[in-house]
């Protein structure tokens, strides 16, 4: 798993419209990268809508947000349109970015074992270093924790 202080692994993934999005596109500003298991599930929908509803708070922190899941571009387009999401959703169908960040993990539910994205957020500073890692975030707590982490990562003026 990528840890605090490490350089965030670079990536290039298609967004919900099929356009390439790279980590370097966000250089010079804080970035919240959140990994989620699957679009249109209750927890993932609540988390995405929370980001949408806190857009002013993220803007006040000067931060951009991207969500990454193993869903297809087409599924992410439907998800974004249905919930009027105003930030990029990235399709990691090969799971290579989730693996690079260490969030593609073995899970189990109702006695069934499978692999999927661990709900984890990475706060990346303007220089591309991981300022904080929020592991196994509950959807209802995601925005509060991410915004607090952005505040902690803000350079202090003396």
Question: What are the SSEs and their pairings?
Answer:
Layout: E1 12-14, E2 20-22, E3 31-35, H1 42-53, H2 55-60, E4 64-69, H3 73-82, E5 89-91, H4 96-101, E6 104-109, E7 112-117, E8 120-124, E9 130-134, H5 142-153
Parallel strand pairs: 3-4, 4-5
Antiparallel strand pairs: 1-2, 3-8, 6-7, 8-9
Round the mean pLDDT to the nearest integer and report it. Answer: 94
Beta-strand content bin: 25-35%
How helix-rich are the residues, as a percent range? 25-40%
Q: Distance between the terminal alpha carbons, to the nearest Å?
A: 33 Å
| SSE order, one letter for each helix or strand | EEEHHEHEHEEEEH
Largest sheet: 5 strands, mixed
Give an account of the 3D structure.
This protein has a five-stranded mixed beta sheet with strand order 5-4-3-8-9. It has a two-stranded antiparallel ribbon with strand order 1-2. The protein contains five helices and nine strands; from the N terminus they run E-E-E-H-H-E-H-E-H-E-E-E-E-H. Helix 3 links the parallel strand 4 and strand 5 (89-91). The N and C termini lie far apart (33 Å). 29% of the residues lie in helices and 27% in strands.
Explain briefly what this protein structure is:
The chain is of the alpha/beta class and 158 residues long. It has five helices and nine strands; from the N terminus they run E-E-E-H-H-E-H-E-H-E-E-E-E-H.
């Amino acid at each position: 798993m990528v840890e605090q202080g490490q350089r965030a692994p670079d990536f290039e993934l298609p967004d919900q419209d099929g356009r390439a999005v790279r980590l370097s596109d966000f250089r010079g500003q804080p970035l919240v990268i959140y990994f989620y298991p699957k679009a249109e599930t209750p927890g993932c929908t609540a988390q995405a809508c929370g980001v949408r509803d806190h857009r002013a708070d993220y803007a006040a922190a000067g931060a951009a947000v991207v969500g990454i899941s193993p869903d297809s571009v087409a599924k992410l387009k439907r998800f974004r349109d249905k919930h009027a999401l105003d930030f990029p959703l990235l399709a990691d169908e090969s799971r290579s970015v989730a693996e690079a960040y260490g969030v593609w993990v073995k899970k189990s539910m109702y006695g069934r074992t499978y692999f999927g994205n661990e709900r984890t957020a990475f706060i990346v500073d303007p220089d591309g270093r991981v300022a904080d890692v929020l592991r196994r975030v509950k959807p209802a707590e995601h925005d509060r924790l991410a915004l607090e982490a952005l505040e902690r990562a803000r350079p202090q003026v003396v």
